[in-house]
Structures are given as C-alpha cells and as structure tokens.
Design a protein that fits this description.
By secondary structure, the protein is α+β, with helices and mostly antiparallel strands. Helices cover 28% and strands 25% of the residues.
C-alpha cells in the first residue's frame, strides 16, 4: 500500500508593504501549526524590494525578538519564480550556480501577506493567472476590502452602518464643510493599509496637514474619519466548509491600556489587552455577528476575514473595517477568537487550506 502524498503548501509572506514584519510573524505561526504528517511546506518569502526567495522553515526565525522585527532579505534563500505554464502548478528555484530546479506539484498557496502588494488583490491575480488555488479572498474582494473607501460604500449599500468620513484623493484638502460635519477628534489614515500604520489621531485642526502627510507616505488617498466614542469589537469570519453561510466567531473587545488608541505598539509590542468573549448583551453580540457575516458576503469574501466594529454606549453598531488576511500571529485576534469559539489554531489553518483546495482557482 502506497503512502498518500502530502499536500504541498507554499506559504508566501513578507512582501513590499509596511506590514512586512507582521506577515513574517504570521508565517512563522502557520509553520508551527501545520501537521508535518499531512503537509509539505515551501516557505516563500518576498523581500521589501519584491524579490521572491525560498527561505528556511524554522518558525523561530520569523518571531519578534524583544523589539526587533523579522525581515526577509535577498540573503534569506534562493530566488523563486512562478512557472510560465499555468497548467504546471510549479514554483521554479533559481540557484546562483546550479541553474533552475522545479518545485513541481504545488497544491495550494497560503498568501499570508498583509497590506499592499498582497492583501489587495495583486498576488491573488498573479495566482489566478498561474492556475494555483490559494487561501483567502479573490481579486475583487481583496481589493475592495483593502480600500477603506470602497469597503464603506459596499457596506452602506447593504445597510450596514458606518461612521462619518471624508476621502482625500491626491492633492485634495479637507473642506471647511467636512470639518464641521466630522468634528474633532478625527482619525487620519491611509485608505489602503493595515496594522495601524500611518494613522494619526487629530484633536486640533492645526495638526491635520501633518497627519495627512504621514498617511500619504503610505497611500496618496487618505480617509478622515470622525472618532466614534465606543468599544472596539472584533469578529472572526470563516467561509462555510461546504460553501453556504459564513460562520462568525465569539467576539473580542480590545482595551488599549495606556495607549490613546489601538496602534501598532498596542497590537504587537505589548500594552493592549482583550476580552473574549466581549461582555455585551446577547442581542448586541448577535447583531455584530450578523453584520460581520453580511460584510463578508457583501464584499464577496472567501476563506477568512476579521471584521472590526465600534459599539457605542447605547449599543449602536458601526463597521470600522474588514481584513481579508488578518494577522495570524500568537497575539492576533483572529486565531484567538476562533480558539475561544472551539476551533484551535491548527484546525483553523487546516480548514483554510482544505477550503481553498475545494474551491480551486478561476471562476466556479
């Protein structure tokens, strides 16, 4: 009797966005979670310059050490390119001295890339062209969820409440009418970024220009959002195992501790804490979970998402944003919420891979 072939998973991580380091940490966590008896893993890192390399598979090399963040560089491994033949499902390793060798038979790609050039539909389009199944949302859903402007527009079309906001495209300043409409304080953020990079809380209009300049270092399109006084609530969503209605996790409430808001430091370097499940009335919990599922469906998501909300003192619920490839680090809310719901991290990763294999690539 022959032994069944292991599922060959290419984990793609790192990337060109400002969230490079968190992507590396997420990849390390996924490496730890995959059962070596079921999966053969190909860790493919992308440098900040965009070079693809076949890296080592030691998860400890992708961890945050103290305050030092991990990084993929050209020295991390041999160069990798996709096969030119979309029926080959191959990755090609380019050795400096020995030429090319094939990593044939890649079954599925886990693109654990956060932010631009990864979570925004770019790598999803590349994988579709290569005919490779992959974990997570398709090209459209990835692009729409990454762009906070269009997330809000699609949510509003489905009757999901969002807070007041204004969009500043390149060369545009906030009008006096918008200042009056939004009031102070406001949050100024890149339209297409995550992990709280480039976000500034503005409590004085004199500080607005500097905040916009900070956001535009990441994205020329900037959102200015009215600050909603409320609790920060998050919900994990998974695609139904056989399609159909997506599933919602228990909710998490974020407490920022000594931080003014849930910034990068509070998320990944300590200082923030959370409650799972969030202490909310049952009807409010159901409302948040329903909005999370509806947002997932409205954007045509697949695989997974983390949907973030504000809940006010009078229990009004407002959508904040959706992440189609949320952080998968040891301190990330998505795996923590599902663990509390009864689905431990290895089972979440296994389900995501098998859902992607069932779905395949292209239109179905």
């Amino acid at each position: 009797m022959t032994t069944p072939r292991k599922i060959r998973v290419a984990i793609v991580f790192g990337g060109r966005s400002s969230e490079h380091a968190i992507s590396c940490v997420s990849a390390g966590s996924i490496l730890r979670a995959l059962d070596p008896d079921q999966y053969e893993v190909l860790p493919v890192g992308i440098t900040r310059e965009g070079r693809w390399v076949l890296s080592g598979d030691d998860p400890s090399t992708f961890a945050i050490t103290g305050r030092t963040l991990p990084e993929i560089t050209a020295a991390s491994g041999s160069g990798v390119v996709l096969a030119a033949d979309p029926t080959a499902t191959e990755l090609i390793v380019r050795e400096p001295t020995d030429g090319f060798s094939s990593l044939a038979g890649v079954d599925v790609v886990f693109p654990v890339l956060h932010g631009a050039y990864g979570e925004d539909g770019t790598i999803q389009g590349l994988l579709e062209m290569a005919g490779l199944p992959y974990v997570g949302a398709n090209v459209f859903a990835s692009a729409a969820a990454m762009d906070k402007e269009f997330t809000k527009k699609l949510a509003l079309a489905e009757g999901i409440p969002v807070g007041p906001y204004a969009v500043l495209r390149a060369g545009v300043s906030l009008s006096e009418a918008d200042k009056e409409r939004l009031g102070l304080p406001v949050f100024v953020k890149p339209s297409r970024a995550g992990s709280s990079h480039g976000i500034t809380k503005v409590s004085d209009w004199a500080d607005l220009d500097d905040a916009v300049a900070t956001a535009r270092r990441i994205d020329p399109k900037v959102l200015v959002e009215a600050a909603i006084v409320g609790r920060e609530i998050e919900c994990g969503v998974l695609e139904g195992e056989a399609g159909g209605t997506p599933e919602a996790s228990l909710l998490a409430e974020i407490h920022v501790g000594d931080h003014d808001w849930y910034d990068f430091e509070a998320k990944y370097l300590g200082g923030g804490r959370y409650d799972i499940p969030a202490d909310l009335p049952a009807e409010v919990t159901r409302q948040v979970q329903e909005y999370a599922r509806r947002t997932f469906t409205a954007l045509d998501c697949a695989g997974l998402a983390r949907v973030d909300f504000f809940v006010t003192a009078d229990h009004q619920v407002y959508l904040n944003e959706i992440n189609t490839m949320p952080g998968m680090t040891p301190t990330s809310m998505f795996p923590l919420m599902w663990a509390a719901t009864g689905l431990e991290y290895p089972k979440v990763v296994d389900r995501l891979i098998r859902t992607a294999l069932r779905r395949g690539s292209g239109l179905h």
